[in-house]
Amino acid sequence: MGRKWNNIKEKKASKDANTSRIYAKFGREIYVAAKQGEPDPESNQHLKFVLERAKTYSVPKHIIDKAIEKAKGGLDENYDELRYEGFGPNGSMIIVDTLTNNVNRTAADVRAAFSKNGGNMGVNGSVAYMFDATAVIGFEGNSADEVLEWLMEAEVDVRDILEEDDAVIVYAEPEQFHHVQEVLKQQGITEFSVAERTMLAQSEVVLSEEDQEQFEKLIEALDDLEDVQQIYHNVDLAN
Q: Are 197 and 171 in contact (CB under 8 A)?
């Protein structure tokens, strides 16, 4: 799973370089999560997850507070959560998760991004079956054996625990996300380098230099879309 963790780091590095865009995306995601339940992370697990993930991207407190206050207000903006699937160059597969208040606009924008950048849209299910929904939690300062012992004592099942680039990476079932974090926090771990519920490819492809350049243009075009929240793919970007 090491390459998968490297791909997550690549995604974070790319987004960290575009702070205003990532803050806007998180603002929308926090608002939607707060509107779907109580605007309190202690009683709204989805909101709690979004806020934990926002911390790993260093989203400022005023962005978070503004989105939550907006959710508490009388204004009611309706957003649909939609997933699109498609293909890039030479066997690359892409999943695009969106939040939109205009489904027709978003569908047209995503389709155009694919078609103008060497890709093509697929039907629902054409790509997702090659990915596994996974909770990924990373942090520094401990050994994998020590973390495994903590989780076993708490009866938390995980898929894998690895030590990579001076960090411990825990891979678990998506529904175990909060349970894993609570166990770690009880052991004094409060800073996480990654805290994601993501889609990890079951296998990855390595593209030629030319194909990778085209692929990166496609990903950038999709990420530039206002309604796109998350992009997952099966390309090994570590090379």
A: no
